[in-house]
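This part of the workshop introduces the protein records we will be handling. A record pairs a protein's sequence with a compact description of its fold. Comparing a sequence with its tokens is the quickest way to learn the format. The record below serves as our worked example for the rest of this section:
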Amino acid sequence: MNIVFMGGEVPSHRTLLTGVGVKHISINYWRLVKRGLPKTKDYILAERFPEDVKIYMDGGGHSLNDMNMTERELEEYAADYQDFLAINSDRITMATELDAKALGPNWINYQRKTFGEEFGLDRYAVIWHPETAHTGLYSLASQYPNVALLGESLEDDTSLSARSRSMLSQFPDLEFHGIACAKPDNLRQVPLATASTLSWLSPMMRGETIVWDGTRLVRYQKKQKDQARPRYKAIIEKAGLDFDKIMNDDSNEVTRLAIWSYLQLEKSLNNKYEKLSDNKQEMDDPGLAETRGLEPDNRGVDMRKDFTPRDPEETMTLPVFGVTSKTVLEKDETGRDVISDVPIIKSTHTSFRQCNTCFVAANCPAFKPNNSCAFNLPVEVKTKDQLRALLNAIIEMQGARVAFARFAEELNGGYPDPNTGQEIDRLFKLVGEVKKLEENKEFIQITAQRQSSGGMLSALFGDRASVLREIPGGGIDEENTTRIIDQGLNG
């Protein structure tokens, strides 16, 4: 799998990428046109890229779909894009088709059959859209050797991992290519031949920090840079980068760190032995950088307006719960004892997880297409001993997490990681819950208050309160004192 760095249409970006040793660079033709192409001569890629760099072309279809261009303008743009590909055919490793949905499916299919075959289907990627459903994806996979998947499609459709693997087993010459999808979770799950990203520009455009910590790619927002960057000093210096420049927020040096980190991620993916994660949940979007025109859609889900009551015979208990009955003795309205069955809700071990849509399908050792989950989670907590055993098991798991977090902390130079402290706090809370369960305390607490001349004891105990205030034995007077002294002398 190769990570393709987008943004090669900008000369400064191109220089930065080639200077670090990047061998896979993508050019967005729409952005290239907006920057201005030469008017008196052709734009020759061979004159602008080293020979060992592989060039990937993107037609910029998303930008076109957001523009109010006429059909004729779109066709002229398509013709210019195809001319550009033909002129630079000898230097282009892979090109995506022009994603101009406004021209209709007939036009798109015609271009695939004509220009695609002329350019070479072995390096011409057709784009799949979710609205065509999985049948459309299967149709493309059965006809073309290269199918491009957009980043938002990978985010929205969690079943693509299993489906794409199934198609690769059916069509050995098929390859999937991701566009704007370098989030490690996507790269780990979906079998992509290439994955393009513009996120490497986030440090330059948004002040983020992207670094490979030795096992995973981590990203920190601008406000976290002062805390995050010092802990990776050893890694930064080992990579041959200037740590002082990075601490001084030198945009080029911080961007070089991001590029180096993505290259390490690429090596890890190809070695297939390191676990990938990403602590950033946002889409693959560097903000103000030259993007493909993608914008997040935060609108709510449209609700269906029509409503038809379900046949009572078709209704059933929610699968995650089970219902049993318990015979109890109750009293009716007249006070008589009656025996009745009371429904009791209980948990059920039935699983509706399916391998095709499971989140861990890519790494599951028991994965089997079109099958239900092979694993059962028999958790039952009905007695105090069962509850104590469950808490003990959770404490052991949490203890292992704390140990591994501390191990990762040591590997990163020993700098204190706040996440390790949080895991330790969770462990102590769990231990405290077990101690509370084992305690057996019984106590009574009475709080009373009264404002009156009689006093609180008189209000509670009546006439006996005066007896409680008397000194036993009649108190201390002359007669009692003499008697006590005589008893002491006579010993």
